[in-house]
Amino acid sequence: MHIAIAIREAYLAVSARLSGNSTNQFISQLPARSIHAKLYRLCFSILGGSMPGHVSEQSQRRVLQALRDDGRASFAHIAKAVRLPRHQVASIVQTAVARDELRLTVSISPALLGLERFAYLQIAVLGPVHPARDALVSMQETTFVADVAGRYSIDAEVRVGPDPHLRRTLDTILQLPGVSDVRTTLYESIEVNRFSPFHTAATPLTIDEADRAIIRHLHTDARASYRQLGEASGLSPSGARLRFDRLLRGGAIKVVGIPVRTGQPETPTLGVGLRASVPVGELVPRLTALQPEFLAVAIGSFDFIATISAESAHELVETMDRLRGIEGVAEVDCWANLKIAKEQYGESDSLPITAG
Q: What's the predicted TM-score (pTM) here?
C-alpha cells in the first residue's frame, strides 16, 4: 500500500505540471505493457481513484462546437450535453486555447463599428501570391483572407464604412502586387453568421464608457466572470451582468469560440457561390437547413455566398450533394479555402460611442 501511495503521489506531481490532455498524452506515451503504465493503473484501482481516461476525438469536437455559437457557455452545461465530467470539458477547452486551436473572443456588431457595406472579393493574381495576400491581411477592411483553389488565387471579405469607402478599398486592392482582376459580390443581407452579430438596419444601441470597458475586458478574457467585468467597468457584478445581457440581446456583441484555422487546415472550408432559379426568399430556409457557417443574399456574380465547413472531407461531399439537390438552386460554384491567412470578425477595441 505504501508503494501504491508513493506512486500515486508521483503521478499527481507529474499531473500537476501538465495541463489539459497533456496528462493523457503522457500516459499514452508509456508502453502499454510497461511496469510504469501498469503501476499507474493498479495504484489508482487500489486506492479508488480515477484515471483521467481517454476522451474521444468526437467528444472533443462536440465540446469545441458547443462554444462556437456561445463562447461563454458554462462548462457544466456543455458537460451535461456531451456526457463528460465538467473537469474534462474544462481541460479540453483550456488545452485547445493553449495550443492555439481555439480563439475565444468577443465580436462587435458592424453597426457599432460604423460598417455599412459588405463585399466578397475573388482576386486573381499573376505570379507569387504572398505579397498580395500579406497586404490584404494587414488591411483593416478585411475580415477574412484565404488562398483558394480555382481560377482565382485569393478570396477575401471586406467590411467598410459609408461610400466611397468600398470604392477606395477596391482601388487599393487592384494596385497590390500581381493583382490582375477582382470579382466583387455585394451582400444584400446576411442570413447566417456564426461568428459575428447580425448586421441590421435597426438603430444601434447607445453605449457608454461602462459598456466600452466591458467590451474591452471581453477582448482580453471572453469568459471573464461578472465580478471581473464589474471591476473593469466600475459596476457591481449584478450591474455588469445586466449591461452584458443588454449588449448581447441588442445584437451589439457576440462571444464566440472561433476555431483557429490559419495555416493549413486538415479539412478545408468551402466557399460557395449560388445562382437561384426561384425568388431568393424561397431558397433561404432551404439553404439554412444545411447549417452553413455563413450565408448571405448577394448582388453581383451570385445570388448567395456561403461558407460550408465540416469535420471531414466525406461530410463536405455529403453536404455539397445535398446542396446541389435543393430545388431552386440553378448553379453552384465552389472553391476550397486551402490556407486561411486571416479570420477576424468585428474584433476591435476601438469602439465609438454611438448615439441612439
A: 0.72
